[in-house]
Amino acid sequence: MSDLQIVFLNYSNLSVTSIRSQNGIDNRWPIECWFAFAMLASIIGSILLLLLLIASIYHEKLQRGSRVLLCHVMIMQLLACAVHFPLLNINTYDAHLGNSPSRIGSLNCSLLMWVHIGTIHAENWASFILAINRFVAVVLPHRYGSFISQNALICQILVPWCLGIGLGLPIYFGFGAEYLSIPPFGLCASRPRLGSFYGAFWATCGAYLPIILTGIAYGSLFVFIASSRNRKAKRRYKNALVSASNERLHQKRRARQIGTVKMLMTAYLFYCLCFLPCPVILTEFPYLVRSVVLWLWISRSFILFGYAATPLGF
Predict the structure, then answer these.
(1) Which residues lie across from 308 on neighbouring strands?
(2) Among 114-128, 162-176, 200-214, 236-250, which stretch is predicted with the lowest mean pLDDT?
(3) Which of 36, 6, 8 is nearest to 189 (CA)?
(4) CA dihedral 62, 66, 71, 72 (to 10 degrees)
């Protein structure tokens, strides 16, 4: 039996009495602290994402292609932050306290987890496509028009959903992993099957691959801008016809580009910090999450906090 299975077994063996108290000591405060943080992060993140989404729609200086893709990413994050996570977290809180049925009623855990994890994986791919959009806008500006044509934008919106929802469809039918409602109180969760190739393939394509490719895109953009600045600086130094005012203007524009890419790289590192621990630990180091509450912090709160803080990086 794997360590991750032990986590689910430990949960399924709980009783209402053991959850609420043990040896006269109240055991509810860890789950209550987690629930309070999770709901607060959902509320704050939803408000920030909604405000940023409205601002992006009416931002006239934002290019049409960037605006569409950026709004698409924010809608996906808002869906997870304002709908999926609150439903799952209320279900989890009621399950741990032995409140049956839950205050939100009986959930179809398989369907909810399929849509929830599929949205997370789709958002990973949408963030990668947004990074490619920014790369093409700077490195290949003469090709950018075709990259943001109507048909191209439709494809860039549909492909992440096809990957996220489509790759999770076999999991929905129990192939490679399973979405389930854990007794006794109906905790919604996903559980990998031991030795399953498709389970590892699903996690790789949904989490690892798009996040790594996003980092490569932003890293390449940083290298291009830094090297381009050095090359053009040498050419301008040799060209005596370039005026001092044009030189200062060019330097400011390059400095602004470097600053933007540095900000994007910082946001990307924060993104990795929030979104990678869950798949890495749950698939490679499951023995680290023998505690149910620790498992909730890793599998729920890290990702939720990432969505709540993402508007600061946009």
Answers:
(1) none
(2) 236-250
(3) 8
(4) 170
Encoded tokens for 19: 């959850």
187-192 and 25-26: which strand pairing? unpaired
C-alpha 77/C-alpha 94 separation (Å) is 24
CA distance 115 to 57: 26
Write out the DSSP string of 3-29.
Answer: HHHHHHHHHHT--HHHHHEETTEE--H
Tens of pLDDT, residue by residue over 72-98, are 999 999 999 999 999 888 888 877 776
Long-range CB contacts (within 8 A, 24+) of 187-192? 187/11, 187/91, 187/92, 187/95, 187/96, 188/88, 188/91, 188/92, 188/107, 188/109, 188/112, 188/113, 189/8, 189/109, 189/113, 190/113, 190/117, 191/4, 191/5, 191/8, 192/4, 192/282, 192/283
| Encoded tokens for 205 | 């394509």
What is the distance, to the nearest Å, from the Cα of residue 137 to the centroid of all Cα atoms in its chain?
24
Task: Tell me the pLDDT tens digit for each residue of 267-303.
Answer: 888 888 888 887 777 767 766 666 777 777 877 888 8
Cα-based angle 112, 114, 115 (whole degrees, multiple of 5)? 65
- Using one digit for the tens of pLDDT, what is the confidence trace for 150-180? 899 999 999 999 999 999 999 888 887 778 7
Structure tokens at 93: 């809180």
Sign of the C-alpha dihedral computed for residues 60, 65, 67 and 68 taken in this order = positive
Q: Taking each helix axis as running N to C, give the angle between helix 64-79 and helix 29-57, from 0 to 180 degrees, rounded to the nearest 10.
A: 160
Closest residue by Cα to residue 109 from 171, 22, 30: 171
Is the distance from CB of 6 to CB of 292 less than 8 angstroms?
no
Percent of the chain whose predicted confidence (pLDDT) is above 90: 23
